[in-house]
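Q: Joint fold for the lines below.
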Amino acid sequence: MKLPASLLDTLHTIFGAHACSTDDAERLAYAYDNSRRHALPDAVVFVQEHAQIEKLVLACREHRVPIIARGRGTNTTGATVPVDGGIVVSFERMNRILRIDPDNRLAVVEPGVLNGDLQRALAPHGFFWPPDPTSSPWCSIGGNLACNSAGPRTVKYGSPRENTLGLRAVAGTGEGFRSGTYTSKGATGYDLTRLLIGSEGTLALITEATLKLTPKPSGLRTLRATYRDVSSAAHAVARIMAQPVTPCALEFIDDVALKLAHDHGGDSVPLAGAMLMIEVDGEPDTLASAVDAVSRAARGDGLEELRVAQSAEETQALWSARKALSPAQRTISPNKINEDVVVPVSRLPELVDGIRQLSKKHDVLIVTFGHAGNGNLHVNLLPRDDAERERAHACLADFFALVISLQGTLSGEHGIGLVKREFMSLALQPSTLSLMHGVKAAFDPDGILNPGKLLP
Amino acid sequence: MKLPASLLDTLHTIFGAHACSTDDAERLAYAYDNSRRHALPDAVVFVQEHAQIEKLVLACREHRVPIIARGRGTNTTGATVPVDGGIVVSFERMNRILRIDPDNRLAVVEPGVLNGDLQRALAPHGFFWPPDPTSSPWCSIGGNLACNSAGPRTVKYGSPRENTLGLRAVAGTGEGFRSGTYTSKGATGYDLTRLLIGSEGTLALITEATLKLTPKPSGLRTLRATYRDVSSAAHAVARIMAQPVTPCALEFIDDVALKLAHDHGGDSVPLAGAMLMIEVDGEPDTLASAVDAVSRAARGDGLEELRVAQSAEETQALWSARKALSPAQRTISPNKINEDVVVPVSRLPELVDGIRQLSKKHDVLIVTFGHAGNGNLHVNLLPRDDAERERAHACLADFFALVISLQGTLSGEHGIGLVKREFMSLALQPSTLSLMHGVKAAFDPDGILNPGKLLP
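A: Joint structure:
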């Protein structure tokens, strides 16, 4: 599709020549995201002000041209790939931290602020913003909100939905609006804030966010527990989550993943049936007893070794296994399929057993690790060639059916985007989907916001 | 309005004679709620099964007859008063706790379960559900969800929106649906769960809730701090909220309220410029240091006395002032107007000063106390006769304008209902309200669910 000349003129008027491009090179750079899917947009614009978005949406609405909001494209689901062409709106230049307000435990930011930059700016005030995807140095707050991206600390501190007070945004109608409050409590009308969070740019473009801050505990201890088998580790997870001291990370790594990390990361990575990486935070005079409480819960049938890191170096060594995983996987399969399903914690053993059977049935290598405290596992299918790739895709449908049968859902923190859209009807009832379509129509009557994503 | 005979027949078929009434006495009993407003419904039905609600909504939709969902009517905003007649659906008989699942930190309940009954059932498992309105012995979970009702523990543990994983419900279309997950993390489509929470029965009738449980700390300490003036107390609140140990209650009581409580509750109630009641929870070996941290923050300019209760009796004595307030107010004004506005914590001094000026300007007694940690104050206008009642109503508009000017909002936990609906356009932009109307139309195209509430 070619953009109408009048729309191109409008884009130039709104954004200026320096922030608006139809060059092939620029379009190519914004054609793909971390999903490795790609599709060329017709133009790329770099927004800096809320008012520009209002004008843009009105203009695009007139011409029925798609708008795709984009943070830094670190999502793995194709949520920012412009499958129907249109205009990619990059928020990378709208990246000011507008206010840090420790007294009210909040920060007001533009969506292009990088997660890592925000954390650095908050640190001197003694606060942090809990959502911390592993991509935090490169991913934007806007992207975190769009996908409800979380990370290991979610087990204790919640996801963006639990850590955002209010938003400013522009709906697909072209109307700018504010939702939520500057307070930690509110019962004034419908919760549009949470509705936008996780909607992947299909309802509105977020132009400002008021984030709820959490005081940063001054101490952190890292534990590593190895178990005879997956089931023992999963039972330990349930025991840990049933006692009052909630760890700030509770990561699971299965035996296949450990073997892989060991092969690539060396002997510092233990070999075991399964491993838990546990982090406990707190204040200096409470940390020891918190570590004791969590350690007691981690012990039990099947525990092989429990180590508490005594120094920063030891902590680094304990995390080496987890960190060695991503590079190790890439050496096997450049085309890994990375799912992030979630099941109730008590169903983790069944999930891991089921994955093992599917791996055998479809003859595909599957490596499993992730945020066990939330039942959120990263399940990586690692096809090495085209034949395996085809088998991996066949395996996916079985895999999602397994997850749903365990009362789980398709995604814990990556979202749906392009790649999981076809499976939505497995996870959600037709009536639920129909209400979601109704909400979509209320916010975006012409369907111009990120078409082809999230809803089937 | 008289219900069509065919609809009455349908009601009898769905509910049976024992759970469906058009008697005057029964209708009168369900005509009012804790707002003391009232309006007669045309019928009252007592639901016990999800399927009954699906049938009821379809039948009422056909005849365009209003449906008003009702828990126990403890709300203070008229949210369950059937202003346009129609059918009140009482959930009091749909009150089973379906599942308590400590391994997955969740409970599945029917909406008629009383908050207090749920807490009692959870206690042996070592868990609690954080929302605890002061009416917890008599209010239902369904009502808590409908109004996003919170309570003192919100400051540490959040409101129903932060403590609910999923819902089953019936939309105004007549379609039953499920939202959310059985897991503590999810990024599978729009967040309809939070959208329903706080929607006061205007979008759907909730028939089942999956609640997120929190391990119950085994220890609790109560502190009482009195200050020279409101401003000193408000600054102490900001200091307490800026350090890492978050109290599980942080209640503020102004001098007018203290004087009132002292007059009625006796000398155990201190007289001071303002008072904070602070509760800190934790495990036995961490509690002392948590109390120390909060005490350090509570100290500062203007502190007059800081007492830590050493026994259950002393705790009870410390709370006596707070508890004496409600009966004391009733002796002054049987028609008290109880608002629960919320402002950023740092704006509390300005709010309390402003209230004082309005009290003078309109010559109305105003008593202020509430959940200071969230900036959520209960502001009680106490008119003693008709003339004062008229002045109090005039004062309200000024009061809400003050709250909005301080970046606050109309309600922290009571909701909007009937009584604050006219002020919604003060708090929300026309564009925000228009999107809320769009959402309403998607869920309830014929406008039969709780008409006349929440949205202006």
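Q: Anything notable?
A: Chain B has 15 helices and 18 strands. Chain B touches chain A through 98 residues (CB under 8 Å).
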